[in-house]
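Q: Here's a chain of 672 amino acids. Please give me its 3D structure as tokens.
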Amino acid sequence: MSPSRIFQQVVRRFEGDTAGPAVAAGLALSYVLLVVAAVWPSAPLVAVFALAGYAAEAFVGRRAAYFSNALSQVGLGVALRAMVREAALLLLLVREDTLSAGWLAAVAATLVLLHVVRAVHSSLAVLVTERRKLPVITRGFDLGRLRLPAPPPFFVREHRGLVYLDAPVLAGALLTVAAGASWPVLTGMVLPLVAGPAAIAVTAWHVRLNRHLADREQVLHLVAEEVAAYAPEVVLYFSGADDCMYQINMWLETFDRLDRKKMIIMRERLNIPLLGRTSSPILCFPGGTEMMNFTMPSSTRVALFPANAGKNIHMLRLPDVGCVFIGHGDSDKAASFSPFSKVYDEVWVAGPAGRERYLRSDAGVRDDEIVEVGRPQLAPISVSGVTPDPMFTVLYAPTWEGWTGDRFHTSVATMGVKLVRTLLDHAPHVRLLYKPHPMAGKTDPAVRRAHQKIVKMIAEANAARDASGQWPADPAHDAAARARLSELTDRLSRLGRDSAGSQDEAEESRLAAQADVAGDALWRDTEAECAQAYWESEGFWRHRVVTGTLPHLYECFNRADVLITDISSVVADFIASGKPYVVTNGADLTEEDFRRVNPSASAAYLVGRDCAALPEILTAIGGTGPDPMAERRNALKHHLLGADSPDAMARFAQAVDALAAKRSREAVGEPA
């Protein structure tokens, strides 16, 4: 990739971030000024800029990691930056002429030797790390027979940190320049020359301790035996990018409620910390070969797929397992009737609309392969039609721009700013909850810019409302509620770190041998408290920008009197509430054409790109008269989600049982 292309990507990553660019600029500037100070020469300034460089290096990994990676791609990695720092030190010593030629040579030789020490240490540390990266990562399985050693110390896991062994040399040399004595630079050279070999010795010992983990086949064999002893019947399988984790997380609670032995299979190791709380055991196969060679227990009869991904093929190949596409939402978007779905044995949809969608699209899925199971995740959505806050509340929950290049896929860029402005200026006052899709702005800079403008508009509107004195503000109550929210958020963060273990894969697998029932219960209780505290942390009249995982979208449903959204699964989910909803028609199609192409909008109020109809719609919805769309919504609810009885969870479990029974009969040669 060309440097200009890398630079463009860095700039895009920094959009909307203030700390990242500041840290990146500080890092670059510290090295430039360090060299200038050495040429001057000025030992105090060299000390200041060297210290600033060390600090910037520490921060850049946390706040501007992409910038650091980009520097490495163009040949300016951490090792080269260390050489610049060391060259600046040598240049300063030459310019100051404090040390003799012999001492100067000793300092230079020490700095070179430290790079050799670091290279040896890093080679051994990488060997330890690679051996402890198990071919299959587990949760909920006892790996005691693997004799997993304790995790190595931090300087093995973070071996790149040894590049800062030059700090004592630099400090000693600067003290020598200031004091005119040679003992500081001698001390500065001795310390890292002792610490470096000591680190090598400890790391070599851990290479020996972990040598048996190099036998990947043996590790896979032992894990396969543990899985076979557990005998899972149903698998939830997921592969996807980190920003797609919502696709599996939405299914975890439903999956855990199945009265069968369950197991989750994941494919990306970096996604494990992003997986929501679950009581089901987990396997993660980062490599395709390991997944392909793993012996799946004969007890496994059903595999559920929330997303279409290339790595699904590694599970789809198993002839004795019934493979089902369950998706991550039911909508009129193309993802809900993809031709890829025909590779599965069955496709489960929420209701008759999902069946019709597949048959109408000619995606290659037969009618007898479609099963209507409802949407068991929708249980938390209130159907009372009553909201807890006194002000009329509008939820704007647009989807993202997608991969197709359709400029009307999301309303954020085309009409989001105008729509939000109309809501903020509406009389009588309404409260706006703005909850964009987690992936909004991922591919389209225009969406990112519009989102940022919307956030700014909401902040300004809140400031105006606070200043008006029109509502009964209680600063003491709000401060206490915000403190409570901060406390609960910190507790959730700690619980999340505790569940993640030591960030060492082997150690995490060892620690997670047993399900943390108490921890799961505490997590759920804290999560519920945190969601409640969120709504109590600000007055009911304040608009909210809702991002992140909490509060959940369904919590926003329960707070809203009306939803405004794009064509997406949000429509089918919200209709479970029975409350009115508005769908954006950014392409300004005729009402007849729009409803024909998007059946989920057949009971919706429609708003075009100019948003001119929105005030009238809000007046009709918020008035005391009958809602003209109410009867349509009730009919559409059953069309989209299926019958109310039996409930969706029961239908989902029945579908699992039916497919498992079918596969069991086929396994013994009986007719399906």
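Q: Can you summarize the key feature?
A: Residues 101-132 form the longest helix (32 residues).
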